[in-house]
Write a structure and sequence with these properties.
alpha+beta; Maf protein; 3 domains; five-stranded mixed β-sheet; four-stranded antiparallel β-sheet; 5 helices
Length: 287
């Protein structure tokens, strides 16, 4: 079956970014969605939250992406489509001592009301931090983080916690600048908090994850509801209960995906590929 035609035919769209995300979002939007993407001019996306804590993010990543898009729309009354990306990082919920990165890319068409969201989660992230009291330790941390290809940020410390209000130094591009930044923070606050710079233009791993999220958005855009033909028909949930291969008792593994249309509400349950669960996941066979 031939893929559906692009949603747009050369329509202009704005991308709310100041950190180079257009490098991976714009080509995919052009090729598969038919959009000509420009960066929203003069838009300060740091106003919606920073990884370095100097500006707190209000609400969820989805809230932040919607706020960025609203700000982009405010800059151009004639543009009907805008996109934004938002990321979040923290400890993996199930894997001890591992970090997890989550990325989303959102598209909103304010004329039709269409909202599409692509997402990607990955453990391929260098998200990390350390508190150091000498420049050698700061340099050792940076080397582990693939500096200077991946950026780092240095800030002050208050009661063992990062204090960007006391010292905050970004755009550190070489080892001499890093040593100077660490020394400045240590002189001011007694220690330096050093962490990976998670801004997209200073973190190649994050750029790759944003690309994967944009690919997911493209998939959703090309997936139409069987009832109303609206783009964006996709997985919205999972149903547990895949039966054990030995005793047929329900397990916690997924037995079906829930697909939902945000337009007409059409809902489908699509069975998992696996017909049965390995007994190692069964509470009866492997208590």
């Amino acid at each position: 079956m031939a893929p559906p035609p692009p949603l747009y035919k050369g329509a202009r769209a704005l991308l709310a970014t100041m950190h180079g995300k257009e490098r991976v979002i714009a080509p995919l939007a052009a090729r598969f969605l038919g959009l000509s993407v420009d960066v929203a001019p003069g838009l300060d996306t740091d106003a919606f939250g920073t990884f370095s804590r100097d500006v707190a993010r209000a609400g969820s990543p989805l809230d932040a992406a919607r706020a960025k898009i609203a700000a982009a729309f405010a800059l151009a009354a004639d543009v009907e489509v805008a996109l934004a990306s938002e990321g979040s990082f923290g400890p993996h919920p199930h894997v001890p001592f591992a970090a997890l990165g989550r990325e989303l890319v959102m598209l909103i068409d304010r004329e039709s009301g269409l909202e599409l969201v692509g997402q990607h989660s990955t453990m391929d992230t260098n998200f990390a931090h350390a508190v150091v009291t000498d420049s050698a330790a700061a340099l050792a941390f940076a080397e582990r983080a693939s500096f200077p290809a991946h950026g780092v940020v240095v800030m002050g410390v208050r009661e063992g916690r990062p204090a960007p209000d006391l010292t905050l130094i970004k755009e550190i591009t070489d080892h001499d600048a890093l040593a100077a930044a660490a020394q400045a923070a240590m002189t001011a606050t007694g220690a330096a908090h050093i962490e990976t710079d998670m801004r997209a233009h200073r973190n190649p791993r994050r750029i790759r994850a944003i690309k994967r999220a944009m690919i997911d958005l493209v998939r959703r855009a090309r997936s139409r509801c069987l009832e109303c033909k609206r783009p964006g028909f996709g997985v919205t949930g999972h149903l547990a209960g895949l039966p054990c291969a030995w005793c047929a008792s329900p397990t916690l593994l997924t037995r079906a995906e829930v697909w939902t249309c945000a337009g007409c509400g059409h809902r489908e349950e699509r069975p998992a590929i696996a017909a049965a669960a390995d007994p190692m996941h069964c509470e009866e066979c492997n208590p």
